[in-house]
Each structure stands twice: as structure tokens, then as C-alpha cells.
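task queued by scheduler; priority normal; single chain, no ligands, no partner chains; default sampling; output format set to C-alpha cells
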Amino acid sequence: MHPEAIWNKLSARWRVYRAPLGFGIRVTVAAISALLIAQLFALPLHGLWVVLTATMVTQLSVGGSLRAGLEYVLGTLGGALYAGIVGVLIAPANVLTQAVILAVTVAPLAFLAALNPNFRVAPFSAVLVLLIAGQLGEGPIESALTRLLEVTLGCAVAVIVSFLVFPERAHCLAREAAARVLDEMAKDLPDILMGFFQRADPAELSRIQDRVGATVVELQGTIEEFKRERPLSFTSAPDPAPLARTLLRLRHDLVMIGRASAEPLPIHLSEDLRPTLNRVEAALANYFRGCALALASGHTAADSCAPQEALDACGLELAASRQREYAPLSASQLEQLFALGFALEQLQRNTSDLERCMREWVRSPGKNTARTIADTAPA
């Protein structure tokens, strides 16, 4: 194999696994740092909870670590202090009393965790305070304060390591997640439109829609990390929320088209519409791929004229078909055409919104840090 080809293949592999490898290194550094700090302060159990906290709080991005650290500190603060107070008021005399204390402590904290995700670790922290305090010879309040100190120290280690060791910014992850959404839409659009010409497998259509939906959910999760990271970041990258909303609407448009294509069109009608729908498919797929590459590379976005012209032409053809074929078509077939026409109208609006979002993201200062879809796709 030519050396250049080998180098290109190795470079592509590195880009695929760069983020996971960086995450693995960050978690390792956080765990070792937490252990050394715990040993320095001679914390109980060899710093077990400091190391566990640092390991659990370190996330794929800086924003994710900030969010996890805040949730962990809040949950520990609420759970440990509440358990410490209950432990002082009710001294465990036997197993039955201990069970009552656990019930009184865990039940309200679990209810609070169900209402507010920030307190998800509160029941866990409360159980640790109640059951470990006696084993270490600590009182409930002392145990609660010690657990809070250990967790805060572990969170601090995780956040600092996330900032300093191969930092992964949430806005870069948002770019890549949005690019994957568009790439998935471009890949699945032909299969969705094919249902108008031949009977499609409902299970396969459902899997296609689920794949697109999963990429949108991944993008929305990255946005939450971006919100945590942005106040402490020096980047002026645009807010990804409008882009995520636009992609979610585009996904809904594909769902509408998929539902409309559940039954094939009559042969005479499908033959008339096939050339127009094929042009729409090609234009949209190329546009989505172009936008995906533009998001990942930071270069000029794909031109939106091609999909708009193809969608306009298809809308006119559908309107003419409804008039021309009105008598022979059944009510369900007319409904199918109206649904397709409505979905194409929504696609026109949403691709225009996507173009506006693309202009914001392409001129973002962080554009050089992203990776192309071809580079991030497994070989």
C-alpha cells in the first residue's frame, strides 16, 4: 500500500477515536490525581469516594463534567446533610430501628430526586452516611460533612482535569452531532420516498425514523452541556439551540413523509410523480450532505437554491396531479397526496431556516476544530 494511503487511513482512524481516547486519558488522570490528593489529606477508606466521584463526574466534554459535578455536589449536599440530621434525631438501636431510619431518609429523598434530576444521588449519599458512619467511628453529622468534602474534592479534580487534559468543547461536539443528524437524513431519505412507488416494510421504516430520532436526541443532550460550558468558555460559538430546533422540525417532516408513503401510489400516478420526487430526493440529499460537511469543516455551506427549486416544482406537480386525477383517486389516496404536499411545504420552510443556521455556524470562530463526516465515519 502507498505510504500516503497508509497515512490517510491512520489519520482517519485517529480522528474517529480521538475523542474516546481523550476521554479515557482524562478519566485515568482524574482517578490518579484524586487518589494522590486523598492520600495527601489521609482521607478515610484511602480516598475511595474522592476517586469514585472524580471518575464518575469526568464526562466527554467540559460542559458535561460541569453539569455532572454540579448535580453530584447538590445531590450529596442534600442527601448527606438530611441523613446526618435524621441520624442524630433517631439513634439506631437494632435492625428494625435502622430500617425505619432508612425509610424515613430514603423515601423523601427519592421523591425529591424524581422531581428534580439534580438530586439523583441524594438517596445514595444518604445511605452511605447512615451505614458507613458507624463503621468508621464517625457521628452522623461528621460523616455527612466528610462525604460532602470528599465529593466536592472529587468534582473539583474532575472539572480541572476536563479543562486541562485534552479538553473537548461541547460546541465542537454539537457541530459533529448536528452533522450526523444531517448525514443520517440524507442517507435515509431515498428509503423513505421509495414507499410511494413500492410497498415498504413498516418495521424498516420505523427503524429508519428511530435512527434519525436518536441522532437528534444526541444533539439535544450536547446542547445541555453547551449551556453549562458557555459561561466559562472563551469561544463565541453560536447557540446550537436554533439549529437543533430546525433539525427536529426537519425530522418531523421526514416522519410525515414516511407516514404518507406507508402505501404505494397508484401506478399511473407514481409514474408521473417519480421523476419529480427523484429530483427532490437528489437535491435534498446533496444539500443535507453539503450542510453536514460544512458544519464539520467550517467551509461554505451548500447552496440552498437547488432543494428549494426542486421542492417548488414537486409542489406544483402534486397540485396538478390532484386536479388531474381527482375522480379516479380514493379518499385515502387524496389524503396521501395532501399529506405529501404539506410535508414538502414544511421542508421548504425548514430548509430556509437551516440555511440561516448554517450561515451562523460556518462563520463561527471554532470552525477549524471540527472534523469532516468522512473523517469521523468508521472505515
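post-processing summary
- The chain has two domains: 3-164, 170-376.
- Residues 364-379 have pLDDT under 50 and may be disordered.
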